Amino acid sequence: MSIPTTDPRSGETRETGIEATTDAGVAAITTAAHAAFLDVRDRPRAWRSGLLRALADGLDARRTELVETAQAETGLATPRLDTEVTRCVMQFRMFADAIDDGGYLEVAIDHAATTPVGPAPDIRRMLVPLGPVAVFGASNFPFAFSVPGGDTASALAGGNTVILKAHGSHPLTSKLSFEVLDAAATAAGAPAGTLGIVYGQAAGATLVADPRVTAVGFTGSLSTGRILLDIIETRERPIPFYGELSSVNPLVITAGAVAARSADIAEGLFTSVTGSAGQLCTKPGIAFVPADAAGDALVAELVARAEAAAPQPLLNRRIRDAFEEISDRLRGAGKARELVAAVVGEEGFALGPAVLEIDAADVTADVTEEAFGPLVVLVRYRTLDDLRSALAAVPDSLTATVHAEDDETTEIAALVEALRDVSGRLVFNGYPTGVRVSWAQHHGGPWPATNTLHTSVGMSAIRRFLRPLAWQNAPEQALPAELRDGETGIPRRVDGVLQLARTLTA
Amino acid sequence: MSIPTTDPRSGETRETGIEATTDAGVAAITTAAHAAFLDVRDRPRAWRSGLLRALADGLDARRTELVETAQAETGLATPRLDTEVTRCVMQFRMFADAIDDGGYLEVAIDHAATTPVGPAPDIRRMLVPLGPVAVFGASNFPFAFSVPGGDTASALAGGNTVILKAHGSHPLTSKLSFEVLDAAATAAGAPAGTLGIVYGQAAGATLVADPRVTAVGFTGSLSTGRILLDIIETRERPIPFYGELSSVNPLVITAGAVAARSADIAEGLFTSVTGSAGQLCTKPGIAFVPADAAGDALVAELVARAEAAAPQPLLNRRIRDAFEEISDRLRGAGKARELVAAVVGEEGFALGPAVLEIDAADVTADVTEEAFGPLVVLVRYRTLDDLRSALAAVPDSLTATVHAEDDETTEIAALVEALRDVSGRLVFNGYPTGVRVSWAQHHGGPWPATNTLHTSVGMSAIRRFLRPLAWQNAPEQALPAELRDGETGIPRRVDGVLQLARTLTA
After folding, report:
1. Which of B156, B147, B207 is nearest to B174 (CA)?
2. Domain range for residue A330?
3. I want to staple B483 with a disulfide (CB 3.0 to 4.6 A). Which of A413, B13, B124, B179 is the partner?
């Protein structure tokens, strides 16, 4: 029997014809990925940026088919999926630009010199790729955190090869995305094995244990993350595991902000909580609202919107069931009040939004569990001290958001102080969902948000799949082009002084 | 009974008056380190670079006393120890310069913009410190990898506070170094708790498990590293553990090089193998010598030097005993031939150098174990293929060294190809011992050399103790100075374009 696919809108399941990858299949794929790595890593950067642009073009050309396939497997709306493809296309192009820029290589050259401890040799350093990288697709982003997503783009950009683990929730989308990328890569001259894909949970576990795999990128649940981390720990050679795992993303609204714009914030918060049926790792799952009349108005507005909302399909049965289980726990936790109960849709895995409310003094870890779906816990608070105490019960997150007026300088300072240690991105007067792909982005955060000090979104995500290598007193013939003396077109730190790539003028 | 100290030259042990730190003592120290962190992390960079320069000056001023104390506990020669203090002084000053430079913050600013996926918010990113960092001193560098060493300097430079675990092999040196640094820090206005120190193995384990500790820097044996990693895995919140663990550092001499300069290489190799009694993590423990007449001459010269060498004290009884045990294993392994047996000195823990020889075809993992002390295994090879097969049995290392003539282009290319994946630094026509502290240095390497993708020596070591944090649409008042618009005196990547700090002109 082949791997099944289910339409979350109807709940109907059918076979895909895709077989789960066997252990022998995984070994063949990692062997090919290793062989391809030995070839591609030494190709010029211009070839690699061309490869990434070819992948972007390939995706863009098959957009309609990709979106249709993904919609049948995820139930996500067409505009959302279309934007996701655009994001992947843009991301490949941005990483191509980053390759051309060359700053990510962190090149440093220290010429031989006399130092306080004596004569010192010439040392040159740059970052080099690791080898085959395993990338686990996530359920909630069939493109941007799956086959053609950020982990794939950043690992390839660094000069690695990539083996994808298709997410079981969208096997056909994974297969089609892979075929599109693989065809584009082949046309761009990439050797077979530059990209590979495996299907099935067992194959994923085998992949993480494979000695040829040199790093793992994972976006998913804390529980699956722990299983994979346990496999990593049994390896003879440990490898980096970059896990983005769990996040409740606290959002704090000050008295000034709620007084000035309660309706706006209610609308923005509602959209952020329910967009993509709340199945985003950056969904604000807990919002702190002043216990005053303006706060009451915000809550009433949010409740009205939630009550009027149509159920949306969750991604799969497991997520729907887990959401209901966690919602039950949250509802029964301590002194939480249920303001809006999730309405169960008539077909498939559809659910409406849920809103809970609790007083700040009653917040415990029981009501701060992440519910992956359209649920928000509203915490009503009176003072900054109440707020701080309640925040202490919230697990560290990818993001933390503050809605405040500019003249609330005391509140802003106190909130930055309270939130910067427990998150990876501080959002002001906006919403954490919708993660910009850019140089300055950081999509990461303290445990249990992630287990790393790196980002999985934005240009510096490339650093995860590189290691430094130093050359001492190397003859020029032994040096990579980027480390030779003279102009190389990339920024470098030479004898301690950062130098820009020189711009060629006519 | 207090912690003992032993003079390795005589083997005599005496009490130090230093008590092992209790669990309560560790908790008090980490609590103070956390409190100090909340203060120092927000001080301006200029204050922190001043602090590091004050630590450099403090060390420099007490140099004589430090060296004398260390000599009595390590048996290392005065010039070596004096240079080590100089290295620490220089290192603090270089990290101070790096703080002033500000490039290590990796600042990126992306202004709000319209992108292919829609309007995107203003995002600003920089690296921020982690919190209290635990630093484990190493036996073989009583200064440079102990209390005033690179881990301490890089963690402090990043804005963290530091808790040292004194190495049991030099408690008095650790205590004195700590007092010197602590006094200098206090005079520079650092709060109590900026630096802390614990004594005893149990205290080290307690420290690694402490929830207030946010990262660990460790240089030591693979076995101790594994014990500490096991403790990390039991923590509720995992933290990064940067371990520099084990390294045999293969050195390859080509036919051309041995023909051109066998006596020079014999002298250099002998010095590198026996300097500091071979107790350096970068000691070349296995050298590949052509099986020809020039190779025979090199071996003969090396043997003559080893036979003439006086025994030198090893650092402590445990290291001496382990060295003898491993030497016995290597000597008995397969077809190894003992060319020079280690002479046992008359007093203390002194031992002379040992030289083993084996044919390339006979090399197995049995003869590639790291022997921490003055021992080298000479592997005699005939062809590049023999060499590559034998190299495959060598564990990955911090360094790999090639001695070759410039016109041996085929050999150089083949050796770079064979060695770059198994080491962190490629050394040409030199020796891996003597690690330059500079911007381009990389002191790291694949497992089991280290368990990280970072360096523990050189300016980029600071990256280990920083994490990214992003600000989205932040009002200026909420931004650190380095992230505000306008000139800040540091390099930044603004809207994707790297910009240098502008030089102020008159």
Report:
1. B147
2. 250-428
3. B124
Parallel, antiparallel, or unpaired: how do β-strands B354-359 and B375-381 relate? parallel
Residue A503: pLDDT band with limits 50, 70, 90: low
pLDDT of residue A40: 97
In terms of domains, do A319 and A389 share one?
Answer: yes
Strand, coil or helix: A345: coil
Question: What confidence tens digit (pLDDT) does each residue in B137-160 have?
Answer: 999 999 999 999 999 999 999 999
Q: Verify that B216 and B318 share a domain, yes or no.
A: no
Which of A122, A125, A252, A485 should we substitute to test contact with B (largest number of B Cβ atoms within 10 Å)? A125
Write out residues in chain B with pLDDT < 50, as ranges: 505-506
Does the active-site annotation cover B281? yes
Whether residues A275 and A164 share a domain: the answer is: no
Closest by CA position to A420, among listed B192, B107, B38, B193: B38
Annotated catalytic residue within B244, B301, B357, B370: B244
Q: How far apart are CA A294 and CA A302, in angstroms?
A: 12
Label residue B339 exposed, middle or buried (CB < 10 Å: 0-12, 13-18, 19+): middle
From B281, B357, B370, B411, active-site residue: B281
How many Å from the N-terminal Cα to the C-terminal Cα in chain A? Answer: 64
B293 and B205 housed in the same domain: no
CATH of residue B262: 3.40.309.10
Rounded CA separation A397/A449 (Å): 5
Give pTM, 2 decimals. 0.97
How many domains does chain B fold into?
2
Q: Per-residue pLDDT tens for A378-406?
A: 999 999 999 999 999 999 999 999 999 99
What mean pLDDT is reported for chain B? 96
Q: Would you say residue A402 lies in a domain?
A: yes
Instruction: Determine the pLDDT at residue B408.
Output: 97
Does A244 participate in catalysis according to the annotation? yes
CB B449 within 8 A of CB B423: yes
